[in-house]
Fold each of these.
Amino acid sequence: MDLKLMFFNVWVRCYSYNNKFILRNRRRRKQSKLRPIYDAALAIMTPWFLLRWGALVAYEAVYGKARVNRQMKRERSQTFTHEMGMVAIAKNEGPYIIEWIEYHKLVGFTIFYIYDNDSTDDTRQLLQPYIERGEVAYTFFPGTARQLDAYNDAVARHKAECRWMAFIDLDEFIMPTEPFKPIADVVEEIVRQAGKGAAGVSVNWLVYGSSGFERKPEGLVTENFLNRALPTHYTCYMVKTICNPRLVANYISPHYPLYKPGAYSVSDSDGRRQRGWFCHNVTYKRLRINHYFCKSREEYQRKHARGLADREGKYEADNFTLHDLNDVHDESILPYSALIAPKLRCQG
């Protein structure tokens, strides 16, 4: 293994295991005039972080992975209310949320845990039929930077209901490379092949550009935005996670959770244990996430005005240019769009 990569893996694991403590002290640091004291405290605690990480690594190797493997085997014989559940936080996503739900129903999701972060549009009214049918569990979730709070709330309240949970945004669409294959089947295949300790799958982004649209076009997102990046572009290295929620200790990033010791995600792209928020060996073997980050320039400007969901602040001003990638024309999602469009017309 490359020495730099080895040290990076060590850093990621150490940081992940101590993330909750570090983030809590960072928040205190921002709110206090005693910043040097908090900085010194974190520096002094570094040996403890390393010792704690080392103890957990040893536990994983000796006992943790075997325990996780036993739990995964036991759960394969159990029945869950939902094979696939989706968790997302939404703010003023009314123009897109129905298409997003209907698409993911086509690939096997049967419950959507939607956390409404102070929407002022018609999101709640649009979701009402799904709420009444038991397809959406709706939670009004006001405040700033609440994404990780929402994810952890979903794990705490609903982990017994779903075999698998996916945590993505409303501009992301999980797509199997084998058309219409249920995502639950794909995840199970990947996890079984990975062996002891595997409790989830990380899926790489495939970033879509504006396709030249300056204003919001009529029709579906999946119909209109058909130009995307090359898989080698660095924006496609980012991953999102589908996991066994009963083995999640804490969601520490929008991209990946901290699992209980012994459990981990495996990358769909390279089959290895996933460490951190990206995988640069991008192949999209069985899954991909179509990430419609930009849409049209007009829509991106609205997104920019909303701000970030996981922390205070807004997207960088040049993010549209960085993500407006239109190198490859890709119509692979259109068979799904053809099934979604009539449903939306009926509902409209």
Amino acid sequence: MNMVVKTDTAPSRPARLIDDFAPPLMLPGAHKLCAGCGEPAAMRSVVEMIDELGLTARTVGVFGIGCYTSFSPGLDVEMLQALHGRAPSLATGFKRARPDSIVFTMQGDGDMVNEGLQEVIHTAARGENITCIMLNNGVFGETGGHMTATTVLGQRTKNSLEGRDPKKHGYPIRMTEMLAPLEGVAYLARGATNNAGNLFKTRKMIASALKAQDEKRGFSMVEILTMCPTGWFIKTGEAPDYLTDHLGSYHKFGVIKDVTMEAGIARETETVAV
């Protein structure tokens, strides 16, 4: 079959829509985030997995404070807005009141690790049956791009212009690994949005985390590394490689913990590198 389309003359038949690739749970309209931001791809992946797993009617999202908060009015699922850092606690309350619901939080690294570190740690330690999504770009994007607790060594931010220095600023926190030893945690993984392959793997991680919740296995979380060229002081096209070389070299991709239940006995898999 000849797949070459000649462009020197008018087409023999009018154009037609082959398929509508818009995600069913995202309302029409362009987002207002910076060019090259990785958060829209992460948000789309979450709602697509909710739809594919048939969980829409039972799902409630709890949003923290960050650039991603602007998506909350544009998602066709029930939403709650939390105070800065407090999304896991609000999600816990809703889940305990409606245990058959599927509850996820959407937080950035600044919201979760700086503003609300104690919230997510205690939520995980209690084994609350919710799913947390953490968007990690290593900066407080919404408030100007300054350093967070996950900013990697050498990374430039608004208040670390020479790069993060461990002698001045301490070392970055690996949030996912910090939660792994807690007995209440059923599933932990870290994905990324910087290329199609990583996005595909991240979608599988999100699905696994939601399944862990639906099977009532305990706390689950997916950390997603996202691009922020504005906050990184780089050109938009450089952001995917910058994520790999900087954030990705410290915050390693992969499944960190996966506890399955066999005959009522918890069994933990080994870490799988991505």
Amino acid sequence: MTGLRFILKALIACIALALVVPGKQTISVSASTPPAAAKRIAFTFDDVPRGSGAFLTQDERTTKLIAMLRSRGVSQVALFVNPGRIDNGAAGKAAMKRIADYVAAGNVLANHTWLHPHLSKVTTEEFLSQVDLAQAWLDKQPNSRRWLRFPFLDEGGPDKAKVAAIRAGLAARHIQNGYVTAEASDWNIEGLTIAAKKDGKPIDMAGLRDLYVESHVQAADFADELAIKTIGRSPAHVMLLHETDIAALFIGDLIDALRRDGWEIITPDAAYADPIRTAMPEVPWTNGTLTEQMAWEKKIPPPRYYDRNDLKIANPLFNERVLHEKAQ
């Protein structure tokens, strides 16, 4: 029996090695390249401190978000801050308390400019001034990093001279691009939810959770497949989220779903150590995720962006699955 079991195991192993999935590219794996199955992703949250959402107070949101991350064993996320939104009054003191709570939980702070300007709509000097103001504030805070997340993911659009000047300005300041590789426009899901709540529409919370989770898992998988096509490996990914009520409510479900899908949740410190951090794609329009820009540079065949970031696709899905409204 022992010999028979050995033979059967050997046969199964040979069959498994012989199986080829049609249409799939074989990726070589070296010691320095993680296997394709080792999908890794870090969480980052923009627009801190963010205004009120549909369901929670700002204090409740912070408390719940910290608790959910801790409950899933996520030791660090990055919060990209707009310090210019923090006033000197009671609201500002409350915002500082919430930021301090995030830091005390082990998370890090990074630069999202002073007041969230659209780079394509301001001068290079104005933009770098906003970066400097925010960085001066951050340098006084514990757990801060010299990473810049471009508001609206706008790195200068088609203005190549501005793109080059901004890149040079950041290099001179020793500030790294806090790029994104995966996103699912959670800001839009949150905005639609706030509008529905304001209008008194019934919101299917299970439908909202499922749409939020599904969209972000799909976005992560899309980004990984695109990266493998573009650079031949799975990099450490960075997911763009926002400090929203829906994140606080459903981040635990998202983490669970990502892990079931084979993802490891890593720290932003680990993600931003990946070699793609030095990439500066030369593309017609510098906007969007780094994954998309690298694919555009190498002329990878479309699709090069996750389809639910198109609001013409995303909004009807929200109406159907969360509000149960039929398409017009």
